Amino acid sequence: MILIHGGGAHSLAGYEHIAHTLQHEFHVNTFLLDLRGHGHSDGKKGDTPNITDVWQDISQIVDAVKQKQKGAVYLCGHSSGAGLLLNYLSWQEKKRG
């Protein structure tokens, strides 16, 4: 599972507890990431100049997890991270045609 944090947050803003629980109680590998402009990501903090860049970042992470893991890859977003994922999935669908 790839967990996307909410706006103004970062991957270690309480999400590590969720990842730990999923891993140890449910045996679900969980990947936390910092979106552009958040946490330990590159770039100016709080700044995401182009949303398409963020969607491409998510796409690269999904591809990397698919190469590393067997089975399905799930996406989970908290707060505005959930809205971001809905838009990402719509963007992916449009890319496929």
Automatic annotation (TrEMBL):
InterPro entries attached to this UniProt entry: AB_hydrolase_fold, Hydrolase_4, MAG_DAG_Lipase
Classification via Pfam families: Hydrolase_4
Name the UniProt record assigns to this protein: Serine aminopeptidase S33 domain-containing protein
Ranges of residues in domain Serine aminopeptidase S33: 2-90
Record-linked SUPFAM superfamilies: alpha/beta-Hydrolases (SSF53474)
